[in-house]
Design a protein that fits this description.
Blueprint lengths: L1 E8 L4 E8 L8 E9 L3 E6 L11 E8 L8 E6 L3 E4 L7 E9 L11 E4 L6 E3 L10
């Protein structure tokens, strides 16, 4: 988005015009997926949704909650600096819903599409092959 600003210089009585890139909230992260799931951890990866010349994202936030429980309590991890994060302290054989939000100096963007993951049973782990499918619409 571009805005046109007008500045007045009273000394010369001349108007100056300039185009300036306006700061906006970041786009939703894309390609949210897992690369490792155990009984108590999920390692998430994603890509920035900003496709412009400059990615304005400062950090990311992950909000997650149990899907099958009667509790609607969501937990949040904020201040994540990269595009990968390991959530720990999860319950075994439990289904969780994850969303990632990008944050910049203007504010929070919209959350990513949700990702539903079921943790393993105790005593199992399944490192997943690393596949990322990026769909650009």
């Amino acid at each position: 988005m571009f805005f046109q600003f007008m500045f007045f210089c009273s000394l010369y009585s001349v108007s100056y015009y300039c185009d300036r890139y306006s700061a906006a909230r970041p786009s939703s992260p894309v390609a949210l997926g897992t690369v490792e799931v155990t009984a108590t951890t999920v390692r998430l990866i994603w890509a920035s949704g900003d496709s412009g010349p400059v990615d304005t994202t400062v950090s990311y936030s992950i909000v997650y909650q149990e899907v099958d429980s009667g509790s609607a309590t969501a937990r949040e991890v904020s201040g994540i600096l990269g595009t990968e994060y390991r959530i720990t302290g999860l319950s075994a054989y439990t289904t969780y819903l994850f969303r990632v939000t990008a944050v910049n100096n203007v504010g929070r963007g919209l959350p990513s599409r949700p990702l539903v993951v079921t943790t393993d049973e105790l005593g199992q782990s399944r490192p997943l092959p690393f596949f990322v499918t990026l769909i650009v619409a």
